[in-house]
Amino acid sequence: MNKTKLVQFLDEYLELEQFEDSSKNGLQVDNSKKEIQKIWYAVDANSYIFDKAIQEKVDMLICHHGMFRWQAETLTWLFYKRIQKLILNDIALYACHLPLDWHKEVGNNIVLLNKFVDTFNIKNPLITQNTYIFGLKFDEKIKIQDILDIYCDNLWIEKQFYNFWNLKTVSSVCFCSGGGLHSAKFAKDNGFDLVITWEWAHYEITLSKELKQSIILWWHYETEIFGVQALSEKLKKDFNIEIVFLDEKY
């Protein structure tokens, strides 16, 4: 596929202009190729990911966490080595951070929410969104233990459960990807039984306990593979591009 058209499609489909994000979403490193035939996906833009892409002669990498996540770095140390690998091997890098958490079709949160709905065959789910927090309310009660034993385990996700509200069943859940335990206050204020998120600070745990807001904590990486996977499936289906998901954490 024509690279310019592909990048334009991604920019528009992922609605990059809607976000203030220091991650510099979009095409972070260009290459000389006009046509893109082979794409690899990964959660993180790191040297060991680039080495695999070089070995497989990939045209473009698409990552959730790009190389410029909080500030524009100088091209020294690892930043120089990373970009050197890409430029010398003519590999482009496209990154999409917050927009891929938020997206209503292929975002991390909505994919995990939809998997929850499918797992428990929820009828007429009420889905709401508040920036990066996706809320789900439903009529039937679901056992907490079933969420831990069926939903979490089916996704192969390690979890920590803090039942600060002393719940046995729930009829509402909210999802917030990344460092999302700040959503505990939102959940409590809006009547959600359970928060599912995947990275936290100590003060957020103590706040959740003080609020008596029950939470399930996963791991950041394991819960953010879903957005890049869903996006890759869309591109493969719509544009018939060779796409491989590179699942390598550490």
What can you tell me about this protein's structure?
The chain is built from ten helices and eleven strands. The longest helix is centred in the last third of the chain and has 15 residues. The radius of gyration is 19 Å and the shape is elongated. The mean pLDDT is 93.
* Biggest sheet statistics: 6 strands, mixed
Strand arrangement, largest sheet?
5-6-8-9-10-7
What percent strand?
15-25%
Overall strand count: 11
SSE series: HEEHEHEHHEEHEEHEHEHHE
Average pLDDT reading: 93
- Unreliable residue runs: none
Topology (elements, then pairings):
Blueprint: H1 3-13, E1 26-29, E2 38-44, H2 47-55, E3 60-65, H3 77-88, E4 92-95, H4 98-102, H5 108-119, E5 126-130, E6 133-143, H6 144-154, E7 160-162, E8 169-176, H7 183-189, E9 194-197, H8 202-211, E10 214-217, H9 220-223, H10 225-239, E11 242-245
Parallel strand pairs: 2-3, 2-11, 3-4, 8-9, 9-10
Antiparallel strand pairs: 1-4, 5-6, 6-8, 7-10
Helix pairs in contact: 2-3, 5-10
